[in-house]
Amino acid sequence: MEEQKKVEFVIDLREIVRTLWTKRNVFFKVIPVIFLLSCIWIFPKPRYYRSVVSLAPEMSNGASIGSLGSIASSLGFDLGEMGSDDAIYPLLYPDLFASSNFMVGLFDIHVVSSDKEVDTDYYTYMSKMQKICIWDYPKRWLRKLKRSIFPKKKAFSLSEGNGLNAFSLTEEQYGIVEKVKKKILCNVDKKTMVITINVTDQDPLIAATMADSVRVRLQNYITDYRTNKARVDEIHYQEMADKSLAMYQNSCAKYARYADSHKNSLLQSVNTEIGALENEMQQNYTIYSAYMTQLQAARARVQERTPAFTIIQAACVPVKPAGPKRLIFVVGMCFLACVVTSLYIVKDQLLPQW
Question: In angstroms, rounded to a whole number, what is the distance separating the alpha carbons of residues 316 and 205?
Fold first, then answer.
């Protein structure tokens, strides 16, 4: 029985092939149509380029915990970062990129296209200078028609001029922010903690410029966060040191004037007053010296808290576009058309088998 079933299957398969061959004219009609439609659909879409930056952040001392840390890392956990006193550690960097505050901060970056036709800030480029596919024009027309028929109330916004306020964005500004979030992505390898920044754009030079600028903004953001307390202390001790220096200089001047004006005096009261002024001068100097010591310590803490980032792969201008893959799309659609057409032709022969 098994041999008979195998023979029947072979006969059916040959019959299917024979049926497809006899109906080959259908393929000659379908494939050119699908090829033409695929070309019409994919070729008007603008090309885009991708620039990638990879960097490794400085790891805290808590990361050196031996074999236990290696095991946890292989399972997707980082015990070193869990033990760190930093609220923003590398695993949270993708969430930072998803925040509107960080994205709005990128809009003032100056960008220039490779053909020099674009020379403006990133927000203006994203809102007014993006190339669109011809098939997107009907969508825009329908969107404008919908807005004219069903007008919305003007959204409250605190933005002034070309500046944007992340606290209150208009509908248009919010749309630009969401579009940028899809173009600028950040990924962190849980095992190696390597940070990868991907920037996609229609111009290769702008893609590379934004990738490098985003890297700098990320480093500055993390540096400002980690050194914020130390910098506040540095400013405080600098102010106190300046005040104490002024008090010391004032006491020195007062002591010098009084001593000079009573230079040849033998009165005990004069000597007592000179001693008091000298003690006041010495106390002010001691206070000034103490604040200077604290100021130097605060400056050392700022340097100590400043993180170090090692650039593994720097931003570079991409030579080849990352997409759309026009040839692959057209070939794939033609192949899919062949499969669907074949199934339609032999459906009567395949249904009894099922």
Answer: 8
HEC sequence for the chain: CHHHHHHHHHHHHHHHHHHHHHCHHHHHHHHHHHHHHHHHHHCCCCCEEEEEEEEEECCCHHHCCCHHHHHHHHCCCCHHHHCCCCCCCHHHHHHHHCCHHHHHCCCCCEEECCCCCCEEEHHHHHHHCCCCCCCHHHHHHHHHHHHHHCCCCCCCCCCCCCCCCCCCCCHHHHHHHHHHHHHEEEEECCCCCCEEEEEEECCHHHHHHHHHHHHHHHHHHHHHHHHHHHHHHHHHHHHHHHHHHHHHHHHHHHHHHHHHHCCCCCCHHHHHHHHHHHHHHHHHHHHHHHHHHHHHHHHHHHHHHCCCEEEEECCCCCCCCCECCHHHHHHHHHHHHHHHHHHHHCHHHHCCCC
> CA 126: distance to chain centroid?
16
Residue 197 β-bridge partners: 53, 186
Residues 220-244, buried b or exposed e (16+ Cβ, 10 A)? ebbbeebbeebbebbeebbebbeeb
Q: How confident is the model at residue 332 (pLDDT cuts 50, 70, 90)?
A: very high
Summarised one tens digit per residue, pLDDT across range 232-278 is 999 999 999 999 999 999 999 888 888 777 776 667 777 788 888 88
Query: To 10 degrees, what angle do helices 204-261 and 268-305 make?
Result: 170
Please check whether residue 160 is in contact with residue 173, taking contact to mean a CB–CB distance below 8 angstroms. no
**Residues 323, 209: Cα–Cα separation, whole Å:** 19
CB 202 within 8 A of CB 324: no
Rounded to whole angstroms, the Cα distance separating 21 from 94 reads 54
Length of the chain: 354
